[in-house]
Structures are given as structure tokens and as C-alpha cells.
Amino acid sequence: MTVKQNHERIVRLEDDVQEINERLTNLEMKHIALMSKLDTIVNGVKLILAIVGASLGIDVGIEGGMI
User: How confident is the model at residue 66, as a pLDDT?
Assistant: First the structure.
């Protein structure tokens, strides 16, 4: 391989690495958003469970403190 070919190959690899880095950043942001939505849903279910349990007079024993 010539120096020119090696340089072109290095440039292509650097571009690929940059693209992978951008995709990884995008996936990380989507993961954070999804986990926050999931956390909101779980907290809502805990709240509903506590309200139903309180109305039925059942101690549901929810861990994690007060709701």
C-alpha cells in the first residue's frame, strides 16, 4: 500500500469512528429519556397501589419511603 492509500484509509476510519460516536451519543440520550419515562410509570403504579391499598385498608408495604 502506498502512503496515499494508507492516508485515505485512515481518513475513512476516522470518519467511521466519528459516526459511531454520534450514534452512541444518540443511543445514550434515548436510553436516559426511556429510563426517566419508566421511572415515572413505576412511581405512578406505586401511588395507585398505595391509594387502592389505603382505600381497602390493606398495608401494601411499599418500600422506598413516603409517596
Answer: 52
